[in-house]
Amino acid sequence: MKYIRLGQSGLQVSRLCLGTMNMGTPDWKPWIFDEKKSEPIVKHALESGVNFIDLADFYSAGVGEEVVGRILKRLARREDIVVATKVGYGTRDGINASGHSRKHIMDSIDASLKRLGMDYVDIYMLHFYDVNTPVEEVMCAMNDIVRSGKARYIGVSTMLTGQLAKILMACERNGWVKPINMQLQLNCAYREEEREMIPFCRDQGIGVSVFSPLARGLLTGEAQSTRNQTDFFTQQMYSDDASFDISHSVQRVAQARGVSNAQVAQSWVLHHPGVDCMLVGADTTEQFDSALAALEAPLDDEERYELERNYTPCDVINDYTSGKRILRVARPAREAFSLKGAVA
User: Fold this and answer.
1) Radius of gyration for the alpha carbons in the chain, expressed in angstroms and rounded
2) Alpha-carbon distance 223 to 221, whole Å?
3) What does residue 202 show for φ and ψ, rounded to 5 degrees?
4) Among 43-57, 117-131, 155-169, 319-333, which is the least confidently predicted range?
5) CATH number of the domain at 3-220+270-296, out of 1.10.730.10, 3.30.280.10, 2.30.30.30, 3.20.20.100?
6) Which of 22, 39, 219, 338 sits most deeply, having the most CB atoms within 10 A of its CB?
7) Beta carbons within 10 angstroms of residue 27's beta carbon
């Protein structure tokens, strides 16, 4: 395993972060694993050197935190792991049961700690940017949580670059703690964060962790999986021709290398100069091992060109642009991966 300091903090985390959205209860979504099925995956990740665990109160409506918290208590010493959880989408119905009001943030950290069975989380993250709550209210609450000892650091996820700038300016004005990590979506089929967010995070000394390196399964070649047949977000995000063309390019490179499609897609993410950590949401230990192998398997220039040639701009994927996509046109293949030269 390789490790990196997250942003300008002293916190050292594994470059692979165990994503846990698939752990909790299938009562929430049919592709979710229960505790018994989740534990071998967590155990394997820890034994492989992972110390970074990503959760959210939203996953399985809180049951995800309960399940993963119990597993971690059995398998790891608390001081050896870095636990991140998120606030925003909520776990129940109610007028103040979601968003980033001070009330909801303060209620949510206590509820998350109770479910996790922990005294603190290492990183408490905003799941999105709440346009309905003043940024000063949000960040004052987050600062108070750190000062109270309920979180060691704060982080952010899935927002526009200008929104992150507003957060940083509010923290600077008031002397509040700043985020050390931005969690964003990035893969061969979705690269819009390369334009502004990743360079801005680099400039501001904020770590970058990436989720959905496989484009919700599209890049594995398993578009007919249970998740993709029951998760409408996949269709909203990756249903255009360019996304499928990129998936085919991943397959061509994988066949030429003699490895899985997933390993190629993960290698593209892990060796991206703007990425610190990659979330791995594995359903099996073998899927996790694919990400481990990708850490040691950078792509050459021809392979990278083949993976990138179909990409053209599209709408940013977030809560504010749901369902809006721009049709995209691919560039021609080079000889090494043309229809003539490519592996069938």
Assistant:
1) 20
2) 6
3) -60, -45
4) 319-333
5) 3.20.20.100
6) 219
7) 11
b or e along 310-326 (b: 16 or more beta carbons within 10 Å of the residue's beta carbon)? bbeebebbbeeeeeebe
- Concerning whether 59 is annotated as a catalytic residue, the answer is yes
Of residues 3, 59, 129, 153, which has the active-site annotation?
59
pLDDT digits over 214-264, tens only? 998 999 987 666 655 655 566 667 878 889 999 999 999 999 999 999 999
Instruction: Name the β-bridge partners of 211.
Output: 185
Q: Tell me the pLDDT tens digit for each residue of 295-328.
A: 999 999 999 999 999 998 877 777 666 655 555 5
Contact 299, 253 (CB under 8 A): yes
What would the two tokens of residue 271 be? 């060796």
Which pLDDT belongs to residue 278?
98
- What confidence tier does 95 reach under pLDDT thresholds 50, 70, 90? very high
Residues in the chain, how many?
344
Average pLDDT over residues 277-293: 96
Tokens of 164: 């992150």
Distance CA 34, CA 23 (A): 6
Domain range summary for the chain, segments of one domain joined by +: 3-220+270-296
Structure tokens at 196: 């502004």
